[in-house]
Specification:
Elements: H1 2-13, E1 47-52, E2 61-67, E3 75-80, H2 87-90, E4 92-95, E5 97-101, E6 114-121, E7 129-135, E8 144-147, E9 156-161, H3 168-182, E10 189-191, H4 202-212, E11 221-223, E12 230-231, E13 241-242, H5 246-249, E14 265-269, E15 272-276, H6 283-295, E16 301-305, H7 320-332, E17 337-340, E18 346-351, E19 364-365, E20 368-371, E21 392-398, E22 403-410, E23 413-420, E24 425-432, E25 439-443
Parallel strand pairs: 9-10, 10-11, 15-16, 16-17, 17-20
Antiparallel strand pairs: 1-2, 2-6, 3-4, 3-7, 5-6, 7-8, 9-22, 12-13, 14-15, 18-20, 18-21, 19-25, 22-23, 23-24, 24-25
Length: about 475
């Protein structure tokens, strides 16, 4: 009876197929053809402002935003940020590109009409604070401030989120706001896929932008798509497609394999090469590209971001083809850190891909793999953790816990801190580069505290429902 009532409750809340529905949606989560919430409907006033890097992070900033279709010519202004309130007088004005979004081919979204605009500010000074705003010359956004990256491998921090996905406005908002409070000096934000639940749903993307608010316009977004950014256009077809919103609303690098631009790419930021991979399609094609990007890498640190984990954490999941194609390359080129999502738990461990003859009594580390979750959808960790895999041990795990991560790089040290959304430190370690051999691995004392599980916390839903 308890299980039955739990399932009824989950279905009522939209968990059955993981579609958070309201009165304007049917049982499949399909919109009935009208805007209902204020964050859905575009207007002549700019909204959904998203800062990113499509080119060199030290000399450029990219920004995209949305309006209704009455705005056909958009512009953006940028100026050095100073204490004086004279930005309008000194700003440089650039014309934006404009892309029409009218997904008439997407079931339930045919009513959506919007224009997305984009500008890349180039020729900027490195490590410099700029102010910018976007609009049509009459109606403007507020002024945002953003800092370019340093051209040198100077110390920096950045943020990392696993899946937001569900109840984004109500629950994930805590995660991104707590992360900004913890590390307001962060230079950018990594989103490891499944930013929302239904790929093409305008209403859900609206919730994502409301949850992050002006943070999305202040910290460059480094996002890769998860499986929930792919969906069929109609119930009758068999093919999943990348979200119709993805490329219009994010200005991301186009240096990936042809056809995978803005879903597979790399960025070099202050001595760190960040490589985004797309685990949803063309795994083998990405392997060839990844080998080239890893082989020709002048940076001290290498961080790979992908959605589906190389080592699965949740039950009955195992991404065999992905692991076979990519892990040998991650081993061969000594990738330092792999950041993942998808499994709706927290897990962290390190492989033993160290050079022959290394003293394994020292606290050394091959590649460190982390999976995390920032939204409210929670799974259970495999009972045998990562015991089915030969060369890795799950050293820290969590269930039923919303988390965000702050990663700091300072010379030869990379420091990783995972916080729950109340700001409590849950996991932490340092990687220290050595002249020869693998990184030195130093776990922080917090890792000796008991792990959070479904048994010793109060779940929002019975784990049997998942």
């Amino acid at each position: 009876m308890r299980f039955f009532l739990t399932c009824v409750l989950l279905a009522a809340l939209g968990y059955g197929g993981w579609s958070w529905t309201s009165a304007d949606h049917d049982e499949h989560g399909h919109h009935h053809g009208a805007y209902t919430d204020p964050w859905e409907r575009p207007s002549p006033q700019p909204d959904r402002v998203a800062l990113s890097w499509s080119r060199d992070p030290a000399t450029s900033l990219s920004v995209s935003w949305r309006t209704d279709t009455t705005v056909t010519q958009a512009v953006a202004q940028v100026a050095l940020a100073t204490p004086a309130p004279n930005l309008e007088k000194v700003a440089r004005t650039l014309d934006a590109t404009t892309e029409r979004l009218a997904p008439t081919h997407v079931e339930g979204e045919a009513h959506v009409r919007a224009h997305y605009h984009a500008v890349t500010f180039e020729g900027l000074l490195a490590d410099t604070l700029y102010a910018y705003r976007v609009g049509d010359g009459t109606r403007w956004s507020e002024w945002f401030q953003a800092r370019t990256a340093s051209a040198e491998p100077d110390p920096m921090a950045f943020l990392y989120f696993g899946d937001a996905q569900n109840a984004v406005r109500t629950h994930w908002s805590r995660a991104i706001r707590a992360a900004y409070q913890e590390a307001p000096e962060a230079r950018f934000v990594i989103h490891a896929g499944d930013l929302i639940n239904r790929a093409h749903r305008n209403a859900e993307w609206g919730e994502w932008f409301v949850a992050g608010g002006w943070i999305h316009g202040m910290l460059p977004i480094v996002a890769i798509p998860g499986n929930h950014e792919y969906e069929r256009y109609t119930e009758d077809e068999d093919t999943n497609h990348l979200s119709v919103h993805w490329r219009p609303q994010f200005e991301l690098p186009r240096n990936g394999p042809p056809g995978l631009e803005e879903t597979v790419y790399y960025l070099d930021v202050q001595g760190v090469r960040v490589i985004g991979l797309n685990t949803n399609e063309r795994i083998e094609d990405q392997a060839d590209w990844l080998a080239d990007v890893l082989a020709d890498n002048p940076n001290r640190w290498t961080v790979v971001v992908c959605h589906h984990p190389v080592f699965s954490t949740a039950g009955r999941r195992d991404n065999v083809d992905q692991r076979a194609a990519w892990k040998p390359l991650l081993d061969r080129y000594g990738v330092d850190l792999v950041l993942q999502g998808h499994d709706h738990t927290y897990a962290r461990g390190r492989t033993v891909n160290v050079a022959a003859g290394a003293n394994l009594r020292e606290p050394v580390s091959g590649t460190v793999y982390v999976s995390s979750v920032s939204g409210p959808k929670m799974y259970a960790t495999k009972d045998n953790r990562w015991d089915d895999y030969d060369d890795i041990e799950m050293e820290r795990a969590a269930e039923n816990t919303q988390l965000f991560q702050v990663i700091r790089v300072d010379g030869d040290t990379l420091s990783f801190h995972a916080f729950d959304v109340t700001g409590q430190l849950y996991d932490a370690f340092d990687l220290v580069k050595r002249p020869n051999g693998p990184n030195r691995f130093l776990a922080h004392p917090v890792t000796t505290t008991p792990e959070r599980t479904h048994e010793n916390t109060v779940p929002a839903y019975d784990r049997a429902g998942f």
